[in-house]
Design a protein that fits this description.
By secondary structure, the protein is an all-alpha fold. It has one domain. Helix content is about 70%, strand content about 0%. It is built from two helices and no strands. It is elongated. The N and C termini lie close together (about 10 Å). The model has no long low-confidence stretch (mean pLDDT about 90). This is DUF3098 domain-containing protein. Keywords: Membrane, Transmembrane, Transmembrane helix.
Length: about 70
């Protein structure tokens, strides 16, 4: 029972983190080479956080659905 609660907590954490990283990537993509949160990210460099956020989001949702 305790293991299931930990899995759901971890899955929720991954899902929320994925959403935040995807939103950061979207804002960085639309910023026209201006610094976002102190980071200067070009349009092509914003692809990396988007892909990482997508992996986090999909793995979190998959883990939620399996528990």
């Amino acid at each position: 029972m305790d293991n299931t609660r930990f899995k759901r907590f971890f899955a929720s954490l991954l899902t929320i983190l994925g959403i935040i990283v995807i939103l950061f990537a979207c804002v960085a993509f639309l910023s026209d080479n201006k610094p976002v949160l102190g980071l200067s990210v070009t349009k092509w460099e914003s692809l990396v956080p988007f892909l990482v956020g997508t992996v986090f989001l999909l793995s979190g949702v998959n883990l939620i659905s399996r528990t």
